[in-house]
Amino acid sequence: MAVSKTFTADAVRQAQAAGQRVFGENYVQEGVEKICALRSSPEGAGLEWHCIGPLQSNKTRLVAEHFDWVQSVDRLRIAQRLSEQRPEGLAPLQVCLQVNVDGGANKSGVAPGELLALAQAVDRLPRLRLRGLMSVPEPVDGFDAQRAVFLQVRDLFDDLKSRGFELDTLSLGMSDDLDAAVAAGSTMVRVGRAIFGSRPARETSA
Ligand SMILES: *Cc1c(COP(=O)(O)O)cnc(C)c1O
């Protein structure tokens, strides 16, 4: 996945011209503007858009109406709203649960001990399709240390699969740790700066 947050629709078009099809956005409003801009051209029709940023309740409708995937679901209330608000004419919203394996309580992501219950509840929502797990570990130095954290997420993923969940997406790894993520079994790396260059500073949130 190419993470195009803070970059322009033109940057997305250039990546698309080079063959990239899957894009990730963190900020809902910014993402929706780009999705609408790209979809208004014929080439933009085949793109797949993933929401990867923290989600507030008041933004779920925009996400449900425009994105193809949400990788940052970490509580049931958000999942319920996304399911209720997903338009009938669209395919179910593809969902990953974001897991917090190493952070404090303030960090986004469901705690490992609460993951199974959340997965069971999300799996029952009619307009969502549970595809896998996503995680954004705290930065650590060195391949082995990075891989060790990713392997904790991999274990949770394998555990859910062994319980009968049909999951195919383990979304791990960014520009600085993607090698370790792939070594731990990532099926989808989310790469921003290594594709688009360094990001401009951003003033406002969401
Ligand atoms: C920004 C972001 C990325 C991409 O990070 P880079 O370091 O630019 O590759 C991936 N995942 C999430 C959730 C992000 O917020």
Small molecules (ligands, ions, cofactors) in the structure: pyridoxal-5'-phosphate
Number of strands: 7
CATH topology name of the domain at 53-189 = TIM Barrel
CATH superfamily of the domain at 53-189: Alanine racemase
State the CATH class of the domain at 53-189.
Alpha Beta
Count of helical regions: 8
Rounded to the nearest angstrom, the radius of gyration is 16 Å
Gross geometry: globular
Tell me what portion of residues adopts beta-strand conformation. 15-25%
Biggest beta sheet summary: 7 strands, parallel
CATH architecture of the domain at 53-189: Alpha-Beta Barrel
Secondary structure class reads: alpha/beta
Distance between the termini: 20 Å
Which whole number gives the mean pLDDT?
95
What is the share of helical residues?
Answer: 25-40%
* Low-pLDDT ranges: none
Compressed to H and E, one letter per element, the order equals EHEHEHEHEHEHEHH
Q: For the largest beta sheet, what order do the strands appear in spatially?
A: 1-2-3-4-5-6-7
Describe this structure in words.
The chain is an alpha/beta fold and 206 residues long. It has a domain at 53-189: Alpha-Beta Barrel (TIM Barrel). The protein has helices spanning 9-17, 28-39, 60-66, 76-85, 112-123, 143-162, 178-183, 193-196; strands spanning 2-3, 22-25, 48-51, 69-73, 93-98, 128-134, 169-171. The longest helix has 20 residues, at 143-162. The mean pLDDT is 95. The site of pyridoxal-5'-phosphate has 13 residues, from helix 8. Pyridoxal-5'-phosphate binds at residues 3, 5, 26, 52, 136, 174-176, 190-194.
